[in-house]
Known about the structure:
four-stranded mixed beta sheet; alpha/beta; 17% strand
Amino acid sequence: MPNLFSMVTLKESNNYTIEALKSFFKYTFLKNDDDFYLIDNDKSENNQFLNYKTIKIINNSKPMSFAENVNQSIEIAIKNKKDLVFLNNDIVFTKNWFKPFILESESISIPCNNQIFQYESDLGILKLKPTMNLNNFNNNYELLEEILEQHKLKIKSGQKFQTLLMPFYAFKIPYEILKNVGYFDISYGTGGGEDIDYRFRCAIKGYNVNYLTDSYLLHFHGKSTWGIESEEEIRKRNIKYKEIFKKKWGNEATKIFIERENFLEILQNKNLINLYKKNNFTELIKILIS
């Protein structure tokens, strides 16, 4: 199945987009029928990206939310019968990162990253922390590849796993799932909650959302959204998406998947604690909201 790759760029984080595209096109093999769309969300300077001849630029007439931008991409992917690979712009890609995704046609796949596994290079020159910036990385591409070798030694190749928190910072949705589950819910606002919502809707239809151990990226974390918001804007956004999620999926689901505090008693009372310990969140979600 051909792929539609899509990424959003913004004025405030255009410098991250530069690094993301540089590493993406260095380490990603594109088939002749693959597409790459770059969505300019707020009239940022995008002429520099035209150097990549395979990029098609979408210029939004006004800034759109995360869900709205994903939905633009879903619409194009469904129309052209392609798998969707949606990518944040605050990512550095690594060698063969997409290879494990190629055969994944029955679940949503997400690469591992430095929020899950933290490493540092020999001599500690490059340390991968959960949240970083470009200065922390300092163009240390060779050291990042060294860290990738550490990761390969740490994990068991071919494994997939689920966790309670699985942000959709980079993900592949196969065409069949796009057709059956549909679009992201845009009611959550600027960003937050819509990826968990989509995960719930996938679980209802029996689709898994998995991390793939064989794929590892550097994710700077939050530079595509939170980095351009004030603390007050973040607070209001968090309140909004939490309230919408609670209204849609209930108080218990919100405590477990949104607040993620003091929820073990809920799982125990609903006989879900074993599924939680086994990290079988697809089945846990189906039972929780049934």
